């Protein structure tokens, strides 16, 4: 009976996430200066019929942005889950540990370098630059982790690394050319605006390939959650496994930072919400649920960022912080009570 209840709970959780995803997808397509009925939206998307202006707005602006939000939101959430598994800490995440800020710094430096020479920076170059920045930040975090065994100190160190990277980025942006600052400003605050089908194609390939590898690592992750000794007894090569977790989480967070800039709290809040919804930490269930949850959370936050003060658009990080920070505070209070 318990197994049946658990299975029903899992199906219900995935159904809830899928329904929210569909509702928010349609809502995001319709939100903006032009309002369309569901039938008009379906005609434009599936039959390629409808008003020319509405058709161009949906196909060239809204759909690439919405798909980007789904892909990158899911990637960021899974990256947070991998980091939480690696550090065995519920508030470890790409933004909190300074990984996103490191990626932001290297991308900003390269963007300024290329833009000052009137050279456009390709998607692949941005992802590689963000990955290098992520790995540099992660290297500093791991060095601190070797010296400090207290997890709260590790998180504080990550936050400090993030502040240093952000300060250097702000300093560099301040002394960049005026034309470069305009291009960098929105991106450095976090934004899904200006996405193209080319961007969607590149991020989809990178995220999909990484997610396949993460999914195949479900069993070793499950064993690692029960302790290093247990994982070793189950035949997991701990050294290779830990390197794999670092690389995969860095690729996912780098892809997000390269296209949308640093986005706060998604990587911490969503995995926790998903685990609470499923009432399990089994990676085989949590990984796809995290992807769906991250997509739903970011679609909701992006909708608010676009519409609340339209035509002015809020930075996505400001909105995700409003909804994600209370979850992090709750996690910390709950953890303190347990201790």
From TrEMBL:
One of its GO terms (molecular function) is transmembrane transporter activity. InterPro entries: ABC_BtuC-like, ABC_transptr_permease_BtuC. GO terms for cellular component: plasma membrane. GO terms for biological process: siderophore-iron import into cell. It comes from the Bacteria. It is a multi-pass membrane protein. The chain crosses the membrane at residues 12-29, 66-83, 95-115, 121-145, 152-176, 196-216, 243-265, 285-305, 314-333. Its main location: membrane. SUPFAM superfamilies: ABC transporter involved in vitamin B12 uptake, BtuC. Keywords: Cell membrane, Membrane, Transmembrane, Transmembrane helix, Transport. It is found in: Cell membrane. Belongs to the binding-protein-dependent transport system permease family. FecCD subfamily. This is Hemin transport system permease protein HmuU. It comes from Blautia wexlerae. The lineage of its organism: Bacteria, Bacillati, Bacillota, Clostridia, Lachnospirales. The gene is btuC_1.
